[in-house]
TrEMBL record:
Residue ranges, annotated region (Disordered): 22-42
Residue ranges annotated for the Alpha-L-rhamnosidase six-hairpin glycosidase domain, each copy included: 421-663
Upper taxonomic lineage: Eukaryota, Fungi, Dikarya, Ascomycota, Pezizomycotina
Organism listed in the record: Sporothrix stenoceras
Ion transport found in the keyword field: no
Xref: Pfam families: Bac_rhamnosid6H
UniProt xrefs under InterPro entries: 6-hairpin_glycosidase_sf, 6hp_glycosidase-like_sf, Bac_rhamnosid6H
Annotated keywords: Signal
Extent of the signal sequence: 1-21
Record has Signal as a keyword: yes
Name by which UniProt lists this protein: Alpha-L-rhamnosidase six-hairpin glycosidase domain-containing protein
Amino acid sequence: MLSRSLLSGLLALGQVLTVSARPHHNKHQKHDNSPQQYSPKLYSVGTEPQIDGLSSYTTSSSVTLNNGSSVLTLDFQSEVAGWPFLDVTAVDLSQGPVQVELKYSEEYNGLNSALADGPWLYSYGLMNSFRTETFNITKTGQIQSYFLQGGQRWMSVTLLTGGSVSIVAAGFEASVNIIEPEDLPGTFSSSNSTFDAVWGLGARAVQAACIDEGSQTSLWDISSEGAYIRGQYPAVTSKSTSDWNLYTLEFTTKIDTGGTGWKMVTGPSSGYGAYFILTSNTAGLASAALEPLPLNSLTIGYGFSIIQQALLPSANPETLDVNMTIHNDVWYRIKTVVTSDHWAVYVNDTLIANVDATPFQGAAQQVWGSGSLSAGSFGFGPWYSQAAWFRDVQLTAANGTVLYTNPLTSDVDGAAEDTLLEYAVHANPQSVCLDGPKRDRDAWIGDFAHTARSILVSSGRVDYIKSMIELEFTWSSVSGEGHNLVPIAASIGTDASHAFEWYTGIYGEADYEFFFMAVMGEYFAATNDTRLFTQYWDQATAFMAAAVDVFVDPNTHLATLNNVAANGGSGASFFTAQGETTGTAPTALFVKGLNLMTKIATVLGDTNSADSWSALSKTMTDAINLSTWTGSFYGVSPTNMGTSSVLATAFTIQAGVATDQSSTGSIQALAGSLLNIGYKDTSAAANSATTQLSPNTQGFLLEALFEAYLTLNISVDVVLPAIITLTSTYWPVMVNQNQYYTGASWEYTYPDGSPGIGLFTSLGHPWGGAPTYVYSNYLLGIRTEWNDDINQFEWVFDPVYEVASALSLTWIKGTVPLASGGSITASWEANIDGTYTSSVKVTGNNNIKVRDLTK
Ligand SMILES: *[C@@H]1O[C@H](CO)[C@@H](O)[C@H](O)[C@H]1NC(C)=O
Ligand SMILES: *[C@@H]1O[C@H](CO)[C@@H](O)[C@H](O)[C@H]1NC(C)=O
Ligand SMILES: *[C@@H]1O[C@H](CO)[C@@H](O)[C@H](O)[C@H]1NC(C)=O
Ligand SMILES: *[C@@H]1O[C@H](CO)[C@@H](O)[C@H](O)[C@H]1NC(C)=O
Ligand SMILES: *[C@@H]1O[C@H](CO)[C@@H](O)[C@H](O)[C@H]1NC(C)=O
Ligand SMILES: *[C@@H]1O[C@H](CO)[C@@H](O)[C@H](O)[C@H]1NC(C)=O
Ligand SMILES: *[C@@H]1O[C@H](CO)[C@@H](O)[C@H](O)[C@H]1NC(C)=O
Ligand SMILES: *[C@@H]1O[C@H](CO)[C@@H](O)[C@H](O)[C@H]1NC(C)=O
Ligand SMILES: *[C@@H]1O[C@H](CO)[C@@H](O)[C@H](O)[C@H]1NC(C)=O
């Protein structure tokens, strides 16, 4: 967990001066073994950020920023997370207020970009939507940000004004507990330090991305005065219905700094919508990142926000002068009337703007939006650097019916909690693993397939896996569209009581449902947790029945989205099949899920489920053979047989669908998808400098290559070229480029080995960390395998020496933690005569035996 206590005697200044008038920060619980804070390892002071020639940082490293040296660079050397702070020992206010701008970035280049490596105006994520922020320094003492920053290696502090400021300490008060890979319960070390460093990537990523219950604090402060909301991606109510059309929104607001903002006619979780920002007549904080909006103005935009950010476009906003004076610290009643083609804004009953909405029509979107300029949800969020209070919200239909009210105050017991959950800005009620600590900060269940595996061999925090499985079942709705399916990307700031309101997102990446089967099976394989599955078995079987019903075509027996579309479901796609509505990879992934779930059912004694799932597995296996095998590789889908893909190759092997001949063919076909350092998702993807290479898809392939070699009759020469490419060329780019290095695995790369969405790339993505578990399971050689004789998963020690030897690895040692306590430690070494010396032992657990297959 975390902590963010205010040190007594020191005043925490957020983004505003009037500290005493602001609501208090929430109090946090502290986890015993959490680091208190993360301190920089290296620093420099100069006129611009620096990457080379930095000095060692110590607690006595006091620096002074002034006109001559205005930029402090702080290097934490690897991914850290928490609430940024500065300890100010001196400030020279003789030339007026002193303001500094902080920047946060995973890669170094973010420090040279105006907005650092952000912003991320897409999900609330319980962190600052922006990666830059300004502090107004009015006195000495500690300054701490209200918002946490979820993941970065770098921070800079730039003096924006005259005067000077002396800083004696800076860093992050920890929001997650990141332990160095070598100090974890699971370890890996080998004769080649590059392999060790690559193993560490997933081990660090899962620690940065998995968050303890309550550790990421709420984004709004609710008191008897109302909700105090700082400049942030607007959070919307989860209560919208399809009736919310042609309505009037009213609320009362008081500007503390800069301005106030609200969003209307948006998608159910914000996304595309109209954004209104009203500024006061008083200048807010200085900023080098974003030009402040004009004083006393109204800005109207449409999109995720009012600025362009990577992947998420916004229409160009309009800014209008407001013909009345808007003061800080004065309450105003704002009324916005939505008609079929206009948005009219009133302040205390004075019309200040009647905006023609039709120019924004081109920007309206069905996905992540209502698709309409007069319908959808609403929410609140002032713009960058602003802060305001909000209260007394009312939504009224055109016929006068009141559709919604909320005082946004804490006056009634429990009301504040309810409001925070309703707007998904509550401190995270469940322990979950995010896709990435910086973004998206959603609990994507598909990404979690890799995350769970890396946890099992490194941090050993199986409580996160249990919590994710429980979340999926407790959020699953038992009625309505998609009932008994599970959420593919739970929002972290709310709980199951609001799950159904967010259920509109059920489709999306529909094959993430299939990954959930694999998550359950692989968790069970490593833990034998019959208790958890006994508790949730009814839900698990209902989920499986729903998945079969919704996604398996009764005629072709392939996984398909046709039923979803036929039933009016929208927005569904197969992540693993490049958007095809029927595909080889999703079908094979489904088969892998069935095979694993069959094993759980077998152990639990549910023979009906086991029989029906294994029969379906066989039927779907035959269907893949019949309709997607080209004779030389598996096509992406029956209608796209000319294209081979990494995931069709990987999942047909992992599902046991591929034969000696077909696995050999599809692995060899991958050569046609090699682009410089790694494999494109498909042979049809362009050979361009900006083609994204995915460590997620290649991670599944990496394990599949070991599985093919171990379970099929194919020579090591079939799998080696791809294994060597992945382990020796592809993954090392994440460890050997200082300007990008975070010590954690990445989301994407470009073919030149740089991050694959530029500055926007998450460089803390567990989905890019498969080598962590593949190296532990196959190179160190500790893993579980199903034993048909005893109908149980059991531990084996079985290093794949032929591959290790081809990778020039001469020894490996390491430990895998056990969910039921203790661990398995093993080591092996190649002798000069070609034989191997090895050992394996279980410590701290009398119930677990390991079958030593090296003997
Ligand atoms: C910094 O110093 C330069 C001259 O060295 C001067 O022109 C400039 O105005 C100063 N800037 C500030 C913010 O004091
Ligand atoms: C008024 O409008 C709302 C929202 O469209 C609708 O649900 C309600 O039935 C209407 N009431 C009347 C009396 O027409
Ligand atoms: C910054 O602090 C100064 C006092 O040093 C104060 O006058 C000014 O209003 C503050 N600015 C903001 C935007 O809070
Ligand atoms: C502001 O302009 C609107 C028309 O756009 C007018 O109705 C209103 O009276 C004006 N308000 C003031 C205070 O002048
Ligand atoms: C606007 O209305 C609020 C009440 O809704 C009132 O408190 C405030 O004084 C009014 N402001 C002005 C400038 O009239
Ligand atoms: C497809 O099925 C046939 C007949 O069972 C079998 O001989 C062949 O090996 C299978 N091929 C693949 C690629 O699975
Ligand atoms: C394995 O493959 C080799 C070479 O293709 C073949 O000679 C051998 O018979 C196969 N073994 C089995 C058990 O199928
Ligand atoms: C260690 O592995 C890396 C990446 O595969 C390789 O480039 C390097 O040559 C290896 N070093 C040794 C000593 O084998
Ligand atoms: C699961 O339990 C069985 C028997 O209780 C045991 O033999 C086996 O080693 C266990 N497997 C794992 C992976 O813990």
